[in-house]
Amino acid sequence: MLSTKCKVFILALCVSVVCVVLNRETYSGLSQTLLEYTSPPLDSRVCACQKCLSEESDPWFTKNFNQSVQPFLTKKYSTPENAFNWWKRLQHDGSSFTSYTEVVDKLFEIIPDKDHNTQPRPDKCRSCAVVGNSRNLRGSHYGALIDSHDIIIRINRGPTQGYETDVGARTTHRVMYPESAMDLGNTTHLVLFPFKTMDLRWLVSVLTTGTFTMKSYTAVTAKIKANKDLVMVLSPAFIKYIHEVWLDNPAHTYPSTGFMTVVLSLHMCDEVSVFGFGVDRDGNWSHYFEELRNKNLKTGPHHGQDEYKVIQQLSDLHKIQMHKGW
Ligand SMILES: *[C@@H]1O[C@H](CO)[C@@H](O)[C@H](O)[C@H]1NC(C)=O
Ligand SMILES: *[C@@H]1O[C@H](CO)[C@@H](O)[C@H](O)[C@H]1NC(C)=O
Ligand SMILES: *[C@@H]1O[C@H](CO)[C@@H](O)[C@H](O)[C@H]1NC(C)=O
Predict the structure, then answer these.
(1) Shortest-distance Cα residue to atom 14 of ligand 3
(2) Which ligand approaches the C-alpha of residue 138 most closely?
(3) Is 66 in the pocket of ligand 1 (CB under 6 A)?
(4) Where are the disulfide bridges (predicted)?
(5) Is 229 in the pocket of ligand 2 (CB under 6 A)?
(6) Which of 9, 34, 181, 302 has the smallest set of CB atoms within 10 Å of its CB?
(7) pLDDT, position 36
(8) Architecture of the 59-323 domain
(9) Which of 177, 254, 288, 323 is the catalytic position?
(10) Residue 115's pLDDT is what?
(11) Do the beta carbons of residue 276 and residue 325 sit within 8 Å?
(12) Cα–Cα distance between 222 and 113 in angstroms, integer?
């Protein structure tokens, strides 16, 4: 029989060997085990991860990251009129503030009005995978790594079925807007990014009667499968914060869905890994789930260069970990 001391020594040896072989940052289960021996007492820490992205910050990050801006709409954190007036111009929404607040009230008759645990807690480590739709996921074999995170946020219609080896199978949150909507499993949070009052009207309808016909730049589905108890709606004031604070650019455009999802993850998570962003190995911008159609998929109406710089800076500061794929 080995003595306990000896077993501990062997275990420690194994762990360090594994750590050298694997990338320690990405195996949070293992980091958790190590954490018990190396971290200060729980009550002095912001979160239970080895490193919490909201602590020990550099001045640029601290200047931008404002934890008192609430990402999701609740009755308590309703939209201030000035934020509504900024937001309604994004897609030329002619609605009044009164009609907007009426739709929001109606929505909270259907979806729960709750705090979505967006603050870090000393007893929790919220590790997140933000999964974009870039073709650089093809052949990446990231599936198991992506699935090992607590929170897995996917964007628009990026499928998992048939692509599990590269993109994983679990989805805890799916970001969408009416024009990109799809059916969800019963345990997936629908995270609506609204760009106009009609988007909220659409949400009320798809979760209930399905009778609202939405006219938009593309066909919009009238009915989807989703668990209404898990619906979350990004706050227009949060979109304004992303645009004005993180991009700091008074241009007439607004941030891309992918960029907004990354900033949102800073507010929902203590560790962020980003997958499926950027170009593929040929330098083409395209999706992993379809053949290349459009070489200008890159920026749309958004400021791609500014967004790229911010994401690069977050990565340089180790606030997010970029996985560039193949
Ligand atoms: C952070 O956001 C809150 C709520 O929107 C705002 O009142 C406050 O001024 C912001 N803080 C900074 C430093 O910008
Ligand atoms: C979906 O989840 C809800 C709880 O959020 C539960 O009440 C319901 O029975 C589930 N439906 C199915 C089909 O599993
Ligand atoms: C990627 O871009 C290159 C150069 O623009 C092009 O030749 C190639 O066909 C593209 N790849 C695919 C898969 O279409």
Answers:
(1) 292
(2) 3
(3) yes
(4) 128-269
(5) yes
(6) 9
(7) 47
(8) Alpha-Beta Complex (3.90)
(9) 254
(10) 84
(11) yes
(12) 24
Q: 225: Cβ below 6 Å to ligand 2?
A: no
pLDDT computed for residue 176 by the predictor: 97
DSSP state of 67: T
Q: Which residues in the chain land under pLDDT 70?
A: 1-43, 249-252, 292-303
Q: Are 90 and 254 in contact (CB under 8 A)?
A: yes
Q: Give the model confidence (pLDDT) of 2-46 as tens digits.
A: 444 544 444 444 444 333 334 433 444 444 444 444 555 555 789
| 174 strand-pairing partners | 154, 190
Residue 290 to residue 310: CA distance in whole angstroms: 28
SS3 call for 145: helix
Between CA 253 and CA 301 the distance in angstroms is: 6
Q: Measuring from atom 8 of ligand 2, which residue has the nearest CA?
A: 186
10 Å Cβ neighbour count for 308? 15
- CB 282 less than 6 A from any atom of ligand 3: yes
Best substitution site from 183, 188, 227 to test ligand 2's pocket, by max atoms within 8 Å of Cβ? Answer: 227
Q: Which of 173, 189, 287, 302 is flagged as catalytic?
A: 302
pLDDT in the model for residue 284: 74
Q: Give which of 303, 305, 323 is closest to 315, Cα–Cα.
A: 323
pLDDT given at position 9: 46
* 254 assigned to active site: yes
Instruction: Decide: 292 in ligand 3 pocket, CB within 6 A.
Output: yes
User: 112 CB contacts (<8 Å, ≥6 apart)?
Assistant: 229
Ligand 3 centroid vs 299 CA: distance in angstroms? 18
Lookup: tokens for 1: 């029989």
Report pLDDT for 38. Answer: 52
| Separation between Cα atoms, residue 78 and residue 101, nearest integer Å | 8
Gap between the Cα atoms of 201 and 101, Å rounded: 11
Of all protein residues, whose CA lies closest to atom 8 belonging to ligand 3?
282
